[in-house]
């Protein structure tokens, strides 16, 4: 198997530690999850700035929502520390004064594990929204400003065998230049872990597969690929060896040992691969998973043990069509937002199971989100056989203030892309990495957009050469083809023909889609957004009334019928499975609501209401998905 390219420009984030929890061996200390004993208090801070309304989906450049501006919140007064659960959000209520954000300090006192020879420690934060300043025993040890990806902080100054105090100041005051309109949940919304770090350490791990099939999921050859950064801690050089064991669903074990040259540098990128005999492939109909165990040694000393469930599969674009295990796909699915009543973005295990159950109930074979999904939810989707369109949280950042025009903001967006790809690439459910969503209609000419997209494409391809790389674009007639988009393997088409006022005529959708096929004949095309609002106050409105439940159901049916006829599309993903909280005053394309329903904080294109009740459109979509086979041909 060809070894993946490793250009110097795509080295993993400097200083990043293990992104996966380490499993302890007899020689290695145990890590732990810091879930009990947290306290929090509000911090006095300047008020968050006024928040302008976000644009409606696929809006033309310069157009905005009509919901008005949320004014600045008043200065917060400091409060006393109170017990709190972590993960959690600041406040699970979506009420207007909370949207701009605030500052809160968290702390936990815990007894650190006893010292182990040669080992240090690091804190893994799976997600903190929006920014975090981390202190240990009164000393700042790290900061993070990416709200949607995990980060690690070396636990400098940890006192082994003694009580330590970890403090995290979380600031979710939203930058009004960020266009995202979903609710501004703040807090430590995913778990915090204390991880052991040996003299030798593999971080930013990618556990991927290269599969080639001569038939449709038959006569396949596979290799298991391990990619990451090998770090040396301390002054002594290391002589690392990696032992990999892969156990198939039938129990067959494949083992291989990889010895690396003596390492004197602090870190270097390593990539190794091993053939897998008689591979059992992962697919939605049969999500077969292997058990992978990686043991990193320095000489005879165990430094790191990692255990994961992985899958072997091939996702390729051929002649403008998408293939899984050499079988042509015609995917149907629904998108999600990590937002549940009472918990907001801090999903519980039960919430994640509900998302998977809802996706399976409607017959979805693929899902999508505007940011990296929770790693535990991704693992559930691996097991459930539901594919994932993995998307970096870079949404409309070249509109309005055009954040991408500056090199500093492009670097920030590229960090989000790198982290999103790095964290998603080990999951067999992930079928593509999308580097951005709904940037300019004219990326070739828009300041900053083309260099960002091409840079993001290079990073994504380097980190995961096994999957197609995509970008999601918004649909509106009248724009020429973009050279920038032709560099990608796959395009997500977000379109709301027949719904929003700038594309009110649904009959223009088919010509526009055929035009996109002509423009991008080599790229796989997937309709990544479509839908219409279904408002509760219009539940019984006539079928021609926008916002009514019948209009929503009919609009979904018309769109899916068209997708069926256009065989050059590789799939369609409804936006969204379930309603979620959004900017206060959101109209969603169907005009102002009666006063008793304002300010609205609910995005209501969902097939399910926020509390999980099925709308008529759910049944329409379910029936369509049920009669649409996943593969074209046998």
* Model regions low in confidence, pLDDT < 50 over at least 5 residues: 1-24
CATH class of the largest domain: Alpha Beta
Strand portion: 25-35%
The CATH level-2 architecture of the largest domain is identified as Alpha-Beta Barrel
What would a concise description of this structure say?
The chain is of the alpha+beta class and 634 residues long.
Provide an overview of this structure.
The structure is a single chain. This protein is of the alpha+beta class. The chain folds into 3 domains: 8-16 and 199-313, Immunoglobulins (Immunoglobulin-like); 32-197, Jelly Rolls (Sandwich), CATH 2.60.120; 316-626, Alpha-Beta Barrel (TIM Barrel). 16% of the residues lie in helices and 30% in strands. It is built from 8 helices and 34 strands. The strands form 9 sheets. The chain has an 8-stranded parallel β-sheet with strand order 25-32-31-30-29-28-27-26. A 6-stranded antiparallel β-sheet has the order 3-2-4-10-7-8, with no helix packed on it. Helix 4 (449-463) links the parallel strand 28 (430-437) and strand 29 (469-474). Helix 7 runs parallel beside helix 8 (616-626). It is globular and about 70 Å long. Residues 1-24 have low confidence and may be disordered.
